[in-house]
Design a protein that fits this description.
24% of the residues lie in helices and 30% in strands. The strands form three sheets. A seven-stranded mixed β-sheet has the order 4-12-9-5-8-7-6. A three-stranded antiparallel β-sheet has the order 3-11-10. A two-stranded antiparallel ribbon has the order 1-2. Helix 1 packs across helix 4. The N and C termini lie far apart (58 Å).
């Protein structure tokens, strides 16, 4: 198969499908942006208006206020690429939809980078807490986070939390059952639960400021409209290498994200606590 027969749309579609099914950022962030992403450095707009004022009605005069524009501008300021060479490009293209294919692995790596970026916004949360967590107090710890969001009028139906695997284990020891979401395209394996009244997603990309054995994790929870995210696969192409008989395949992922409602976002610093009894 020659380079001219390489079909980049197949690779781009596969990568996009995998990102849609596995990218936590696409599960918890608002994606309703206006504007097309054409390149790194573009901006998109998340439209919005300020909340209306509620006044008492006396049966006579009604005053109409002009709502302020609360739109947010998001800069597409992140970009990552993959680039590798293959000896048999025909085989690589034929296997593009197989689990574990080069396209799948590239998508998973792009997903990890993007989710790490979103989880790195934990310092912008307007609500904070901290706790040392075991299976004995995990319910009360998460309950306090949920309560803090409820007190700023975030409904259970509009509330998410993102936890690392070790917090998932604490919840499982306490009796919570998780399930695997394969996504709309059937290419995912995202672990999640809604057993505690709001959606909880599991990812290794939660920021850990300590060791793997004794993690201190920056767990984020909030309203689904507290963080904005926009992304695009810009280029997927093949190049015939000059110094070898191999063919190179490369692709570029550009995206941006920002906290747009810090008052609706909670970061809890959770420290791993050893289990005394199970």
């Amino acid at each position: 198969m020659s380079v001219s027969n390489f079909i980049p749309q197949i690779w781009s579609t596969k990568i996009l499908r995998t990102l849609e099914d596995n990218l936590v950022a696409k599960r918890v962030c608002t994606l309703e942006a206006e504007g097309e992403i054409k390149k790194f450095g573009d901006t998109v707009i998340f439209n919005g208006l300020s909340d209306p004022t509620i006044n008492s009605y006396t049966g006579s005069t009604i005053t109409y206020e002009g709502l302020q524009d609360a739109s947010q501008v998001l800069l597409i300021n992140q970009q990552q690429y993959f680039a590798f060479k293959v000896t048999d490009i025909e085989k690589a293209q034929a296997n593009v939809d197989l689990k574990g294919s080069q396209a799948s692995r590239a998508a998973y790596k792009l997903q990890q980078a993007a989710d790490s970026f979103i989880m790195g916004l934990h310092g912008q949360a307007g609500l904070t807490s901290s706790a040392t967590v075991t299976s004995a107090n995990i319910f009360s710890t998460i309950g306090e986070i949920q309560q803090s969001l409820a007190q700023v009028n975030v409904s259970d139906a509009d509330m998410f939390m993102i936890i690392p695997p070790w917090v998932r284990l604490k919840l499982e020891l306490a009796g919570v059952k998780f399930q695997i979401n394969n996504g709309v395209n059937g290419t995912g394996g995202l672990s999640w639960t809604d057993a505690l009244g709001f959606d909880i997603y599991v990812t290794n990309q939660v920021v850990n400021t300590n060791t793997i054995a004794s993690p201190v994790s920056k767990v984020m929870a909030g309203a689904y409209n507290s963080i904005a995210f926009a992304s695009q696969i810009m280029e997927t192409e093949s190049v015939r290498l000059i110094d070898t008989f191999d063919t190179a395949i490369r692709g570029l992922h550009v995206y941006g994200g920002k906290v747009i409602s810090p008052n609706l976002l909670h970061t809890s610093t959770l420290t791993y606590g050893a289990e005394t009894t199970i």
